[in-house]
Amino acid sequence: MSTSTKFISILGSTGSIGVNALNVVRSYPDHYQIKYLSAHSQADLLIEQAREFLPQAVSIGDATQLIKVKQALPGIEVLQGRTGLLELASRDDVDVMLNALVGSAGMEPTIKSIQAGVDVALSNKESLVMAGDFINGLLEAHGVKLFPVDSEHSAIWQCLTGEAAEDIKRLVITGSGGPFRTLPLESFNNITVAQALKHPNWVMGRKITIDSATMMNKGLEVIEARWLFHLPAEKIDIVVHPQSIIHSMVEFLDGSVKAQLGIPDMKIPIQYALSYPRHLKQDWEQLDLAKIGTLTFEQPDLEKFKCIQLAFDALEQGGSVPVILNVANETAVYRFLDGEIPFNAIPELITKAIDAHEFLEHPNLDDILALEQWTQAFTKRSYRS
Ligand code: MG
Fold this sequence. Notes:
single chain; 385 residues; alpha/beta; Rossmann fold; 2 domains; 16 helices; 15% strand; binds magnesium ion
């Protein structure tokens, strides 16, 4: 790695991705300098992070905590709300913006950073699900790069190093199958929030943990891969791999398959997105294959995990459909977390929203934002039949 310091902005710094990224920065203080941090509502943690990493500015989403953050951080510029977040995303004096925001709220910040000419380390897969085509156009226009943080896409990215795009036969995205892989379909309606929040392998935020339980997370990752790697849906497959050791694979035209392996811990792909093209030394737990013993694989059960097919269908239909898929899913997931709807209602509400919306072939940014609003409202008031 060059000796010059990389200036970094972390949007969503108090979530699990943000905290892991700051651990990387802490271990390589000569390589990285934090310039901006943003948090949604965890003011105390944001203050603690800012006191340690001394950014130039921070933004707090929850306006009621503005005074508290300001008083705690004299000498640091403090912004607030959605405006503050978008302002930080628009600043061009950083080398890379890590987008660790959750859900559709992360899409506009991705766009702002690209428009500012800043490379984006992307954990917010929803940005590409909602606006992949639009974002790819912007990347080209602004000469900006996206570095995947999602572990599967980091794996594919690493497998593709040195390879020619035309030699790829297909991508194979692995997924653990989540907590309900072996649960019979008849029991799905009784799934509780506590059960769905218990992921077998990965420690993650609440929204993505529920997406893993429905396997919508894999569906969203297929759409994300489509835009990151410029491949059609027919060339992207999912295989269930309960041990989460192989993080994804690439099959080439001659039948050769490359895989990337590692312990199931987001700190590796997070660091790689920041250290690319280098792999920096860390003393964290090493992969011990002899101890793991067996790696197994199976087909995903599309009858149990209806969200997977919904995502493939959305990708095939294109246009506005993936926007509706993403926002309806997100809204339904929060309703499930709030105890308002059963687990099985998540794919039902998504289907209803897709069927009810007015299809647009080529939605622009304003269309996407309007569709987001419509879908949130629709999915909030739509009840299970
Ligand atoms: Mg992933």
